[in-house]
Design goal:
With about 550 residues, this protein is an alpha+beta fold. Helix content is about 30%, strand content about 20%.
Length: about 550
Amino acid sequence: MKKALVLLLMVCLCMLTACGREASPDNLKVMLGSNVMTLDTAQARDSASFELIADCLDGLTQLSAEGNAVPALAESFEVSPDGKTYTFHLRDAKWANGDPVTAADFVFAWRRHCADSGEYSYMMGSTVACVKNADAVIKGADPATLGVSAPDAKTFVVELEAPVSFFPSLMAFPSFYPINEKFYNGLKPGTYGTSPETFLANGAFALQEYLPGTANIRLKKNETYWDAARVSLPELTYQVVGSSDNALTAFKNNTLQMVQISGNQVEHVKKDPKLAPNLKAVAAGSLNYLSFNQDPKNHHAGALANVNLRLALSHAVDRESLVNNYVMDGSEATYTAVPRQFAPNADTGEFFSADQQKFAAWVSFDTEKARSYLAKAKEELGQETFDLELIYASDAGDTGVKVVQALKAQLEENLPGVTIALQPSPKAEYLKNITSNNYDLAVTNWVPDYDDPMTFLNLWTTEGCKTGEQWSNAEYDRIIAECSTGELAAAYAARWEAMYRAEQILLENAVIAPLYTNVNAVLIADNVTGIEFHAAGVDHVYKDVKLK
């Protein structure tokens, strides 16, 4: 009887494990690594929110599986000979309530985005999209002066201040998506995008269940989508999972059919012949780095305004140990401000950061050099000890916790007199502390919005650093401006070299300490095909998913 029971349990366990690699024919259940805080395109600022928005909304273009801009709501477009005027011709498309998608919806959304001056409004401005008068509108000018217009319901015209070679790809990013003006104006102020009732789709999926910060989100296929015939997935469900252990358990138990794992779980899966075939390494394109608050008035530690202290901290970090012993998912130690395996040169095909020794004089693991810089800092600041706080998002996954604990141990061991106090907080509070200048050190992750080095380098202009490191350098600002709207904007090779000069200024001043380039280790159920992964912009796209 006992043997029979044991055999029955073994059979059930095998069936459960096998089912862990199969998805329901009607519903794909996937993992989100963090909570979705908003579906408002003018306020969203994290990859999870952008992904959910992109599930439900289309822009003028979308990215193909290869990462190229292809038509979406814009059936076609023309560019003026000087590269400064784009004319988009909209296809016949509808909002989920039956209203037609019009050029006026884009005009309304873009003007609102600039006027709201959210964190991602900079995407419209002179460091990225270069939309005419965007900078002025962001600073308070009349939104009607923004360089966008709708000559008719199907024609959307954008005027730029300078040519932008990657402008069509930018149009696939959620910051540039439309909003139904009539629907928006019918809502109570401040409620847009906070529930299925206050959010209107025009994309592949429509929102069914959602509350800001909730752990479970459900979408259904949008039957009014202009390309509905392409979408075969009836339902898509997200579940927020912060632990790699829990993610692996959910995959084994068929709770989720796509999860991301890290650390010891990756090694475990590689050694498991039943799970290993489901493992996929995906280039994430994002950079993890240590951010230094350089405001001398910072109430915790104005000492970080001292460049020698920052250089000491950067040289005291063993990045190889971080990725090999704590991250453990294939992520790569990085010594540049632009991540590895990102932004290939159009002429040579070489990634922008292929040479990881280019800035070794300022970014390396060298305890002797670190202590030399620390000695200079102690002399210049007239103090022997430094008590610093390192903030991080406590709900962003267990790997993040392991990394900050390792950083604390490395910095305190390699820099006598430096003490690191770890300060966890929920993601929303962590982001607020970063943007309100309320921190010393922070472990930051930046996911590229488009496939160009500028998506990273413009973070550290004077304007960008107002919500981050509190650093300003006139020469750095000048180079970035020349590469964005100046003479170098259309000079490809010269622009590339100029961006390297800017990167050197950034790193010799230790504005940040690069840590590692993310590689995501994901598990995908056997019968799931068609998930697209993008290193820039929206991480995951489910429009072409098929459940066999």
